[in-house]
Design goal:
The model has no long low-confidence stretch (mean pLDDT about 95). Helix content is about 30%, strand content about 10%. With about 300 residues, it is an alpha/beta fold. Helix 4 links the parallel strand 3 and strand 4. Bound molecules: iron/sulfur cluster (3 copies).
Length: about 300
């Protein structure tokens, strides 16, 4: 039997959904787990950061990092993972682009803390904790601002099939080859290249199951989104919300591409579009705000305050 591959699983600020998706490969875990030598996975067993720190630099074959560096502790873990792992994977759209947690950059850190701990509707008499919590970073930057990654495996979360394919390739010592197509490439709906007559909210009307949802007026980000999910929402009746981030090169601005697509296909007054797109930043940049052009301006502004 060949030697198991050493791996480290790091988690910054995140929801655990990406690791849940890994666990969701179900019975195939029986094939994969014996081939892994797990050196660090603090969220499933009692590993401490000092355990990871104790390994020689570059001695762990593969590292997965889920989530963003919201706190100083997240950032320390991210940098330690980079030092210890030969191959570091940005695991999930939070890690690749800033993801859902990156939407917190719409607000100052003080406002975000207030909403989370005091004004939240499920909280009464809450206080911002001051003890036993690591200091917060003033703003969420894309992880790639702090460390270089070898592989980006986006998705919110990445699908179990994608994870299985990627992990199997790594175990066999092969390169992970990710097809570069957009979600539209995998969509079974017919496109007639007709202009969009009006913008519809998802609950309005009844969509034709065979026609492109965007051409019917439903905002679908399929053309601006990397199709590693193979179009799983659009082929089941829902619009693409963009959770796999921009099509390669992933440095592209996914939200700007989505807005541009709407501008091209919808000869509608911008005010009318805004009436239906209640939360344009959340709609077009939901998964990639910190790594977008707009998000960069916000980051610079927040960081200038701390200088
Ligand atoms: S990418 Fe999505 S599923 Fe994964 S940690 Fe972030 S929010 Fe959760
Ligand atoms: S825009 Fe959406 S519905 Fe239309 S073809 Fe692309 S993925 Fe399918
Ligand atoms: S269709 Fe879009 S929203 Fe649905 S999983 Fe794929 S990328 Fe994510």
């Amino acid at each position: 039997m060949t030697e198991p591959v050493s791996v480290a699983m790091g988690q910054g600020s995140s929801c655990w959904g990406c690791y849940q998706s890994l666990v969701d490969i179900h019975l195939r875990l029986a094939d994969v787990l014996p081939k892994l030598d797990i050196k660090f996975w603090a969220c499933v067993a009692d590993f401490k950061h000092k355990d990871l720190e104790s390994y020689p630099d570059g001695s762990i074959a593969v590292g997965f990092y889920e989530g963003v560096a919201r706190t100083e502790e997240d950032l320390h873990l991210l940098k330690t993972m980079r030092k210890k792992c030969k191959t570091l994977i940005a695991f999930g759209s939070c890690s690749c682009f800033g993801g859902i947690p990156g939407l917190a950059n719409f607000y100052d850190i003080e406002d975000a803390l207030k909403v989370k701990f005091k004004d939240n509707k499920t909280v009464s008499g809450g206080q911002v904790p001051t003890e036993n919590v690591p200091p917060f970073e003033p703003v969420i930057r894309p992880n790639s601002d702090y460390v270089d990654f070898d592989i980006y495996l986006p998705g919110c979360p990445p699908t179990s099939d994608l994870i299985f394919t990627a992990v199997s390739a790594l175990l066999e010592g092969k390169e992970i080859e990710l097809p570069p197509y957009a979600v539209c490439h995998y969509c079974n709906r017919e496109k007639k290249e007709t202009p969009i007559p009006e913008i519809l909210r998802p609950y309005e009307g009844v969509a034709d199951p065979d026609r492109c949802l965007l051409e019917q007026g439903y905002v679908c980000l399929g053309s601006a989104t990397w199709g590693l999910c193979e179009g799983q929402c659009v082929n089941r009746g829902a619009t693409c919300r963009g959770c796999f981030g921009p099509v390669p090169p992933i440095s592209q601005d996914q939200g700007a591409a989505g807005v541009g697509m709407l501008g091209t296909y919808a000869p509608i007054e911008p005010d009318k579009i805004l009436e239906k797109c209640k939360d344009p930043l959340g709609m077009f940049w939901r998964f990639s705000y910190p790594s977008s052009h707009l998000g960069r301006i916000r980051i610079r502004r927040e960081e200038a305050k701390t200088k």
